[in-house]
Amino acid sequence: MSRELRTDTRPQAPTRGLRLGERLRQLRVSAGLTQSDLAGDRFSKEYVSQIERGKTRPTRETIDWLSVRLGVDPGFLANGVSTDERGRLEGAVARAEALIEAGKIEEAREDYESLVAPVRASGLPELEVRVLYGTARTLMRFGEARQALELLNQARAIVEGPDFSDVERADVLLGLGICRLGLSSVQTALALFNEALSLAERSGLPCDALRSKILSWRSRCWRHHRDYEAAREDVERALELAEAVQDPRTIGEAYFQASIVADREGHWVLARSYAEKAKSAYEQLTDKVNVGRLTNNLGMLHFLLGKPEQAIDQLKEAFKIALDTGNQADAAQAVSSLAQVHLRTGNPELAEEQVRHALQLLDGREDFLDEIGGSHLVLGRALLEQERLDEAEQEFVSAERCFEQLGNASFRAAAWVARGDLAAKRGDDRTAARLYRNAAEVLQDVRF
User: Fold this and answer.
1) Residue pair 201/214 in contact by the 8 Å Cβ criterion
2) Angstrom distances, CA of residue 303 to CA of 84, 291, 308, 313
3) pLDDT of 144-203, one tens digit each?
4) Assessment of whether the complete model's pTM goes beyond 0.85
5) What is the pLDDT of residues 304-337, one digit of tens each?
6) For the chain, which domains are there?
7) Which residues contact 354 (CB under 8 A, 6 or more apart)?
């Protein structure tokens, strides 16, 4: 005659970290049941044996039935954690994710750190991936890109398992690509985005929002390679997908990138229109971080469109938003943008003061090499305007070193032009001509 285990009278062996089959066997033995006892009249002994040896995966209905026979929670049998505990952990992870979306990065980081151990002990791989991914996102915001990369690689190893879909794999690859791009590994990032897009498209699952995000991020790689046609094609596809899903965040990301591509191509009115649409989407989400970034970009676009006073007001507002959200990197970008405006409107002394502040804020941020190099370039030009030629040369060399690490032709050309202007200021026309020629050659699409 079959017997049932009462959970309040029999001890249970430790089962966390085990596979379902192993857990089933331990619970059965602990209950004093044979495989035939557990199978009862519903299953064969051989079927129970197959489950225990991992040869077959029982259905949810079977798990529910077996858990009743063993007197345990179905979630505990399936995952090694009770349904109540799983619900608690899922709620805690969801709260941390919501904090990130609300821009409360410090709070999110604390929550994720407190979740790493219990989630890992729970044996729930899908929750572990979410915690690893979320923790990596917070680390990237604090400039700890290499630590973030380590966590994302752990998440990648987990999602390679059979219980995960291609969409989930694509999502982790997107995160890896973003992290690699932050570390200036542009070619690696491009390969990761390509693989993520391929997985998402072949999955056959609804994932238009994810595809839009991948395309938006991939456009940054094309911009880095100065392939603006490819970048524009990606953002146009991203916009179509984003509009189809009607998700404000996805729409905001797509318009943000579309604005930058239009700016690079010199279409400043179009770039402003896209930036305003992106800002509106983020305002709908009360995402102050991205609202601040777009306010910064709009400030520079208004300057390019001949409205310096409006530009200065917006850049000051962007700086204030960055301080309010505790984002030093964004604050540095706003100050650097202000320095550029003051430099170009004939106030090199104020430009110098502001850009030095920007460099202090960006100290140690290897994920902002482009902004650091650009700030050195602005500082060098401010010093050049003040006839402080030796100091200017040091800043131009520092800028070039940053741009060499990035491997960006446009940035390196800008550094060579600046050094050429310095050489011309010193009366060294031969050196100036050589540097100008180097800049022109690196920007050529065709060489003879």
Assistant:
1) no
2) 56, 18, 5, 11
3) 889 999 999 999 999 998 878 999 999 999 999 999 998 889 999 999 999 999 999 999
4) no
5) 999 999 999 999 999 999 999 888 899 999 999 9
6) 20-80 (1.10.260.40)
7) 335, 336, 338, 339, 342
